[in-house]
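I am still getting used to backbone structure tokens and would like to learn alongside you. Label the sequence line and the structure token line clearly, so we can match residues to local backbone shapes. Would you write everything just below, so we can both look at the same thing?
***
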Amino acid sequence: MIIVMSFIGLFDGAYCIYGRGGYMSSSVAVSSFLKAIAKFSVPSWINFFIGVTTVLIATRIFTPDVYGAINIFNTSSAAFVGLACLGMDNAFIRFYHEPPEGVSPQELFTYCFLLSIGGLLLFSAFVLIFFHANASNYLFHQENVYLVALICVNGFSLLVLNNYFSQYYRMSNDPYHYTIQQILVQFFAKTFVIGSVFFEQRIDTVLTINTVGLFLFMLVCAVIQGRKIIVFPRTFSWEKFREVVRFGIFIWPLSTLSTLNAFVVPFLIVSYLDSYQVGIYSAALFFVSAFGVIQSGFRTYWSTFMYKNYQHEQSLIIRVHDFVVLGILLVLGLFILCQHGIYQFIGQDFRSSRLFFTLVLIDPLLLLLEQTTGYGTSIAKKNYQDTIIYVAAVLLNILLCISLLPHVGLIGAAIASMLAAVVRFLLSSWRGQIYYKSISSIRKTLLGVALILAMAISNVVLTDKMGFEIFVVITIGLFAILAYRRDVRRIVDFLERRKCRKNW
């Protein structure tokens, strides 16, 4: 929670100082912006503690091969949902504040929801009939149509609970129901996994308990919540929804690729190595999930804020970008300094992931930064450019993994993920800035990214040399302070004048 408050303090302090000096005026109540971020962060922090508890228990009761298979299953389910949604979940988000004339948000939700359900059913039937053998062999090294069917069922649960109901509460600015839903989904999902230890520790048993439990929970949620949210249009008009469908179809490859990108590395690891190595790699993803918690409130609310206020709040958006860079450096530095203590609580078989966890972190770190640099293409409705960029990044990731995995093992996969993320960030930011300027200084942004990469790589080079690790983190931190001295000075000024909040 301290880190979240640090982010909020950075934003709030910046606004107070800029506002007092006349540097930045805002018609939007920035206090409301900050409160919304904080409210949407609550479920992520609670889920983080649930997730931490689960990881600590799971890495001690499951072997790396079983734990790796669980990760493959969850990743495959998420990738399947991204493929089957047809991009309509993203279309719902884009058009929530600008719906077709005469269409309510609930009607928009219903239309997009039903199209995604139809897509999921079609893809499920297609995979189960024609590709179940190949999918099962690649993912689990056994021909078992039952496991593939479980992926389809689990994907259906995730589609309803996370891709739609949660998004509806997010877009309608309802943090109360959003929080309840997110916490319950996470709690039951993790409980079912851990609860499977009381049964036979076979992968099909573990996955069955998790899938069936989550599916039953989804049905209850769908019945209770669907009555309030799902509203069928009185009269359907294709003309009204044409732009919605077009947007969804064009962004569909992008949303699919972004999901598949997370799937690529575990898939290639299990193909070239085995599920045991996937389990070790998954331990590094613990830090990814931890960072996901830290930035979730911001990402959850940011897209809503951008689409609603990009025409009126450009100066605020520019300043937020600089503070996100500083926040990322702060979080990464804290992770590096705390890694030795954290890994003491993880099962002994999983601790080798400490060698490369900072490289794995680069992808979500830069993905967050893209939220402040690459929205221009979406605002301009030129999503095909993002699709091309993601295709290039995914292909690069695949080629590098294929080249490096057989020779250097898991660290090769981490290097491939990092390099692909850097290329994606640079291309996405370049295209985004053409249509919407959200960066005050390209040179300063590139320097910030270079410092992030230097800090991550130094942890690999200096593994088990704690003194040098601390020295490097402090040195890079000083460079960051020097590069962003104006922003840091404003933060210090804010901290010295806490009464600023009351006055504004």
